[in-house]
Amino acid sequence: MTTITDRIETATGISDGGAQSLAPIVVPNAANEVLDQHGHQNAKVMVVDDESTSVNNLRTYLADQGFHNFVATEKTQVALESIRQHQPSIILINVVDLAESEVQIMEGLRSDAELAPIPLLALTNQGDTETRRRALRLGAVELLTKPIEPIELVIRVQNVLARKLLQDSLARSADQLEHQVRVRTQEVVRSRQEAIHCLARAGEY
């Protein structure tokens, strides 16, 4: 089966001077199709990072591919409140050394019923196996190694968002089916009760 990477037709990299604008990445796969149906503009990406250069680079990479709803917050005690206020579709957090503040944010996300469903993508250093493992244990659904490869960033964000959209769709379908079954069950019970009542009345004659 053809992978997402196999379908990439054109892209550019990063220069030593910083972020470059990416050429359009043509990825005609299921993830892109799902996102196209909902529109990139509907996906809000939040970055939790104290480095303004890193934040700006991520913003540039994603904006080049249609992600324009972008917010950022620093790794402080107000991060969770900012996430709760903005309700992002996905969170990118820089966990290069998994400092106490980063751990608190990730633990806070996973322990909050309202915020826990938001997918978390962690940015880590190459070769830092222990940090990567801890990030996964703390709830990261994807890992990105720094320095960030723009193509990989875009593809992983697309995949995570598409997976979340599909999960939400399945959950809604399950809720609708459960409701329909409940309504139908009530109708059957009511019909049986009416039939019993009619038979009881007929027996009186």
Q: Could you list some keywords that capture this structure?
A:
6 helices, 5-stranded parallel sheet, alpha/beta, disordered N terminus, 205 residues, elongated
Report on this structure.
It contains six helices and five strands. By secondary structure, the chain is α/β, with parallel strands linked by helices. Strands 2-1-3-4-5 form a five-stranded parallel sheet, sandwiched between helices.
State the helical fraction. 40-55%
Mean pLDDT across residues: 77
Give the number of DSSP strands. 5
Termini distance?
72 Å
Low-confidence stretches: 1-28
Rg, please? 24 Å
| Cross-sheet strand order for the largest sheet | 2-1-3-4-5
By DSSP (H or I, 4+ residues per run), the number of helices equals 6
Which class best fits the helix and strand makeup? alpha/beta
**Series of H and E elements:** HEHEHEHEHEH
What share of residues are in beta strands? 5-15%
Largest sheet: 5 strands, parallel
Looking at the structure, what is the overall shape?
elongated
Task: Outline the secondary-structure elements.
Elements: H1 30-38, E1 44-48, H2 52-63, E2 69-73, H3 79-86, E3 90-94, H4 100-111, E4 120-125, H5 129-137, E5 142-146, H6 150-202
Parallel strand pairs: 1-2, 1-3, 3-4, 4-5
Helix pairs in contact: 1-6
How would you sum up this structure in a few lines?
The protein contains 6 helices and 5 strands. The chain is α/β, with parallel strands linked by helices and 205 residues long.
